[in-house]
Amino acid sequence: MIIGIDIGSTTTKAVSIENGSFVRKIKTKASDAVTSATGALGKMIVENEMKMGDIQGIMITGAGASKIKNDIFGIPTVRIDEIQAIGIGGIFFSGRDHIIIANIGTGTAIIEAGPAGISHIGGSGVGGGTILGLAKKLLPITDFNGIMKLAETGNLNQVDLLLEDIMETDISFLNKESTASNFGKMLDTAGSGDIALGIVNLVYQVIGMLSVFAAKSRNVGQVVVTGNGSKNLIGRKILSIITKMYGISFEYPQDAEYSTAVGAGLSWKAGKSGPAQ
Questions:
Q1: In 3-state terms, what secondary structure has residue 60?
Q2: What is the pLDDT of residues 79-118, one digit of tens each?
Q3: Could you tell me the pTM of the whole model?
Q4: Burial level of 21, CB count in 10 A (0-12/13-18/19+)?
Q5: Least packed by Cβ within 10 Å: which of 131, 140, 201, 242?
Q6: Whole-angstrom Cα distance, residue 45 to residue 88?
């Protein structure tokens, strides 16, 4: 059994890989990387009644992986580059051999994975962290689930400048309800729900357009969405609008938020051991 651990800036995810299959998953939060990684591993062992001796090795990745200098609990622990882990996990979940991945976490990374290898096309600092940061200043709530509940009640006409506000007809393939400027209207009557929806819309429109540019540049018709942001239902609706406009589809594999941890676990090679490096 191999354990893959993705030590993120806010959340750590751990999975077990057995005979090349993704079997168990766990998610934790902690104040530092070491506590988060060891806590995730310990939680997985206890909750699944596993034995330490069953674990052949641990593969770590993510923002906090560099903080792990030695083997965890004496188990051979190896660090893998996060971009590689995202690519391996994306291919595993998509079932295809050439894909574009939009990995949405605190920020967003756009990855190409295929027969030629795994490469970082680009990305953006816009992601889940942007939603939380803007909400902290613009809304009376900072809990992510609370922000999403507010957004469900929102009306973009209150905050975003739409084409219909400045044009009487459609422009090319853009209809009058398309965004001309995020937060470009911002009426005095805009409420918390409207602002919350405006924030989510801004973030996912940026992610969606970056993904479209990447996919078109590689002649790929689909984008596999992974990371915590893949679960956002409002974000999915926003991306579906982009699909209608540009013909690039977005796919959301089950358990895609664990994709990077799975990619780390799958990268284990027989005989690979020693301290994290």
A1: strand
A2: 999 999 999 999 999 999 999 999 999 999 999 999 999 9
A3: 0.90
A4: exposed
A5: 140
A6: 24
Exposure letters 136-165 (e unless 16+ CB within 10 A, then b):
eeebeeeeeeebbebbeebebebbbbbbee
Q: Name the amino acid, one letter, at 253.
A: P
Cβ-contact 112, 121 below 8 angstroms = yes
Q: What is the pLDDT of residues 193-239, one digit of tens each?
A: 999 999 999 999 999 999 999 999 999 999 999 999 999 999 999 99
Torsion 117-124-67-41 (CA) sign:
negative
Question: Residue 249 phi/psi, 5° resolution?
Answer: -90, 155
Q: How far is CA 100 from the centre of its chain?
A: 13
Look at residue 64 and give its three-state secondary structure. Answer: coil
Q: Between the CA of residue 260 and those of 3, 8, 93, 203, what are the distances in Å?
A: 12, 10, 10, 21
Q: What CATH fold (topology level) applies to the domain 2-81+260-266? A: Nucleotidyltransferase; domain 5 (3.30.420)
Looking at domain 85-259, its CATH superfamily turns out to be ATPase, nucleotide binding domain (3.30.420.40)
Measured between alpha carbons, how far is 127 from 108 in angstroms, rounded to an integer?
Answer: 6
214-217 contacts at long range (C-beta below 8 A, 24 or more positions apart): 214/100, 214/102, 214/110, 214/112, 214/121, 214/122, 215/100, 215/248, 216/246, 216/248, 217/121
Domain ranges in the chain with CATH number 3.30.420.40: 2-81+260-266, 85-259
